[in-house]
Each structure stands twice: as structure tokens, then as C-alpha cells.
Amino acid sequence: MRRPIVAGNWKLNGTLDDAEELVVALKNLVKDVEKVDIIIAPPFTVLSIISALLIGTNIKLAAQNMYFENSGAYTGEVSPVMLKDVGCEYVILGHSERRGYFAETSDIVNKKIKSAFANDLTPIMCIGESLEQREADLTFNVIETQLKEGLGGLENELAKNVIVAYEPIWAIGTGKTATKEQAQEVHAFIRGKLNDFFGKDVANAVRILYGGSVKPENVDELMSQKDIDGSLVGGASLKAESFARIVKFQ
Ligand code: PEP
User: For the chain, how are helix, strand and coil distributed in percent, rounded to 5?
Assistant: First the structure.
């Protein structure tokens, strides 16, 4: 049995006041949820204040990115040591917006994943194909390559703790969700590849999240699929009520 995860990616949104208001409302709405790991990933600038607000709650803290070095002359970057220090337990890595706008390659993502583990942070590794790649029938090739390169060189003990987020780029922020059949097909493929790369125990343990316009209206059918273990939510995580409803999927 894999414990479900619902993670909210706030992206580039949230002043101190917005963040505090959202977290106070969310804490209250999800306080009775016991069977789901609830994670929020606010921007770096509000991590510290949110970390304090989350003490004693069932909501865990993630960052949206990090650099792979622990410290040094890397102006503008944030390290895993700093994320741990501020109370993060998870970090989103390789989001398609980072790969697309900030030229992050799978090699960089792989270094970040190893560095996250070395610092006791659980990585949420995002993978997913573009519309052009899907239309050219390249979805499985892209997913296999991103998975193999992103997780290359990991020991099984670590690999089983990775969280994979399948996020078709054409479904992110577009309002266009993959159908439950489309999502399940790719999730099953990912689990199959994890089995090829690391064996059955890792494949059965890894939690695979779906991301791409998840909302209260579509979460239940997505979560009914055998290989969908949770969701990574962008837009709908910015409203306490909609995120709470996604957390309380049926
Ligand atoms: C995301 O950015 O990870 C995401 C899934 O965004 P949205 O839910 O807005 O499509």
C-alpha cells in the first residue's frame, strides 16, 4: 500500500501576507486528514514564516527548487542545507518550467536529486512530455529518458524514496487535464521502467503523482487509477478550499 500524497506548487506566487492567509485557512480545512501526506511548496522568501506556522500540523514543507552544492560562490542560489535549516522535508526538482525557462537538463536534475538525498530531503522529480512530443508519438521515449537520466546512479535504498511527478507539459496551467486513461497509461509505464531499472521492490514503493490542471472536479477520477498515488497541484493549490478538496479526494 502506498500512502497518497497531495502536493501544492505555489510557483511564483505569494507575498508574506498572502502566504500566511492561505496557510492559516488551509491548516484548518485539512486538520482531520490522516491518510494523505499533505505538502506545500511556497516560494523561498516565505518558507521561514510558513515553516513556523506549520509546526504541530499535518502539512509538510517543500521548496520548489535548489542548487546541488551545499554552499559557496553561487550567487542567487539556495542550497539543500539552507532548505533543511528552514524546515523543508521535500524539494521539487526538474519541474518543466525549470527545464524549459531555466535550461535545466536531466544531468543537473540528477545532481540535485543526489544532493537532496545527501541532505535528508525527499526529492519530487517532475517528468513529462510536450504536446509536440505526444503528437509525434514520443511520450514513452521522453519519459524513459528523463527517468533514466534523472535517477541514474541511485542506490535502490534511495531510489525507493523518490517521488515521481508525471506532468504532461500540455496539461500544466492550461486547464487541459490528461484523461484518467492517458494518465494511468503513463504511470503504469513509469512503474514498469522503475521495475526494469531498480527491481520490483523499488517499483512497488515509489509514489507517482499526476500533475497538470488537477482540480476538485477531476481529482476523484484521477485518483481512482491504480498507479496514480497522488497529485502535484499548481493553480488550484493557491485557494485553500480547492486545495483542501483535492486533499480530500474520494
Ligand atoms: C504544476 O505546476 O506542477 C502544475 C501541475 O500546475 P497546474 O496544476 O496549474 O496545471
Answer: 45, 15, 40
